[in-house]
Structure prediction request, 194 residues.
Amino acid sequence: MVIDEVLPQFDVSRVDFVVVNGAPEDVYRALLEYDLVDVTRDDRLIGALFALRGIPDRVMRVLRKRPGSAPMTSIRLGDLPSEGEWVQLGEDPGREIVFGAAGRFWSGPIKWERITRETFASFEAPGSARIAANLAVHPYSSGRVLLTYETRTAATDDRARRGIRRYWRLLSPFIGIVFRGVLHGVKQQVETSR
Prediction:
């Protein structure tokens, strides 16, 4: 798997999956075209979870009298840039796409760093972490595909590692809701277009 090359060692991870009725090439095309922002718009629970997670950022902006950033209107995996806060980190076309970010996200305001595929591999800023995630298509049975979503997080030091593990223990169930929302969104897109 490409994710094994991108982030082979990690501190926490989560894998979710769904079986999709469709051809592997159709599922892969759908996951590249699926707008990840749709999951926050279409599912009230997931939208509420994202709103709750954003509270510390909004409070700190108000206290520091800084303008807020514009909300993201679209995030398609097939359109991820090669440089930015969230970037494409690798791909096995037709089978797997890996994307990720680096920064601090587990306490207080979220601070993503600008990265590239190359700088992600060597990112070591103290008190930070790297996140690599993938969506992968696995042949399952005749006319069916297993679609998986995995995320891995690796801390840059022990203090960050402790923070990430606390964050993950508390929020992993909610992160799973988001992952399953994405998986079911792709599944619905494939199965309704058949």
